[in-house]
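Why predict the complex rather than its parts? Because the way molecules touch one another can change local conformation, and only a joint prediction can capture that. The input here totals 559 residues.
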Amino acid sequence: MIGIYAEISDGKFKKSVLEAASYANQMNSNGVVAFCVGSTNDDEIQKLSKYGVNKIVTIGSISFDSQNYTQILSKAIQKENIQTLILANTYEGKSIGPRLSIALNASLATNVISLPDMNQGFSVKRSVFSGKGFAYVKLIKDTKVIAITPNSIDLIERPTSISIENFDGAVSENKTNITSTHKAEGKIPLTEAEIVVSAGRGLKGPENWGMVEELANLLGAATACSKPVSDMGWRPHSEHVGQTGITIKPNLYIAIGISGAIQHLAGVSSSKVIVAINKDPEAPFFKAADIGIVGDAFEILPQIIAAAKLNLN
Amino acid sequence: MKILVCMSVVPDTTTKISFIENNTKFNTQGVQFIINPYDELSLTKAIEIAEKNGGTVTVATVGLSDTEPVIRKALAIGANDAIRVNAEPKDGLQVASLLADIVKSNAYDLVLTGRESIDYNGGQICGLLAELLSWPAVNVCTKIEFENGNMQFERDIDGGRQNVTCSLPVIASAQKDLCEPRIPNMKGIMAARTKPLSVIEPNINETGSEYFQFENPVAKQAVRMIDANQAGDLINILKNEIKILS
Ligand SMILES: Cc1cc2nc3c(=O)[nH]c(=O)nc-3n(C[C@H](O)[C@H](O)[C@H](O)COP(=O)(O)OP(=O)(O)OC[C@H]3O[C@@H](n4cnc5c(N)ncnc54)[C@H](O)[C@@H]3O)c2cc1C
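Output of the joint prediction:
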């Protein structure tokens, strides 16, 4: 059996959970079981059944603590005889994936971007060197934990019926205590965004980000920035992409006034389509881009924004 | 407070990545190695905590003798001593098992790692180590402080940030924004020469995975240029040709 960890965020399953389900339903298995902690609703559970999940094991709400999550999830997973567990490489997935691999005595692969290849034992492809390379890695233990990069796996529907089971297990008191949480309201998390509009030092100052945000809004995109921009405090650090920032893999990455330094490209080069807008025709970004526009961002962006208003739903 | 910083030695960020021996090995020829940038942050933070509260900072690396110049740099930045486990790193499980052994035999209060190493990008060590030790862990921290007898953290979560407290012992991983990395000064470099760097032989050899092939990303096709006066065409192309917008 294949298991997926179905992370709940604000009562819902994110797209990355559906990607995990799609990954699982394409592996040759006799069923997909989802495990979740916290409460959700029937509509959300039915959403999973559309992607081939036959059973969901729900665990009552507990405050997030990677150690306790691991303790209770590993018990529930062992009870279902799961051979392979799929989870998304989100921050939560990154906190519990490695721990679960120890608790389940499993091989672990993170940043995975392909379905397993069974011709060479059990191997997966993962990105390494911050997007500058790929590695094929064989997972040698009987049990496997696989963390997939968001936006790497196509959604594949495989409707089925789904049964719901509750798992009751005692957990000890959390050793870590969450004292406060701040979430940017209504913002698309960068790592999961399908479209990202990003800007660099070429924008000259934080006061000029209005047009970046306007374009992002029109495209339903998340916003990102280069390292110096977040270092100077023009934009929050959480928007910094690149080798020392966040690595992203959106379908569309629009880079405005970013030179395209190797450390920046490392974090964004796996994007499916890259658009570079830069006033310098020699900017290295044009070598990494699919579409380029040479010109002043302050003249180009208003044109693009106007066209988006006119032509997009 | 006894602090252990787990450090990996990685290729400099400007390295052109290539592979040799039929794409089975990373080509280290001409590559400059550095302290993993996230580990530089956890090292700096560990030194700050030790300076403020009293304590010692030990750096541990799993690596062969060629990592020693980089380990000396960590000593020059301000670590008190260093341990090198004389083994070639093979996967996260092997490295974490070897590090767990060090933690078990030395009674550390706080263990810090980087969010990930920039070569294999596993982001695994903090979690693996925590579970091997049965310790609590706080991942991807932008703040790590010891205040009023407790550890205080701020960490990145999907779409935001969170404050977390925990008592010792605990393990945490460093994210950018944690602090400004310290640069070694002359005095530090001189002192580093005589600071203890002990080498221990591995006594565990457990791995969970085997790397057997590498490749570089496929080179992009030539960029398609749009005239600056027709920049609005971009939307049309993305919508009707590439069908990425609707
Ligand atoms: C160890 C290390 C790690 C690093 N990690 C990262 C990382 O993770 N992410 C990252 O982004 N960087 C990283 N960097 C920094 C990186 O090397 C570059 O310095 C940085 O990406 C440059 O940012 P930028 O393109 O915004 O700024 P600049 O290099 O200043 O480029 C600005 C660009 O904007 C263009 N421009 C200027 N005005 C306009 C205009 N009006 N209209 C259009 N275009 C205009 C210019 O032609 C130029 O190409 C790292 C560096 C090091 C040493």
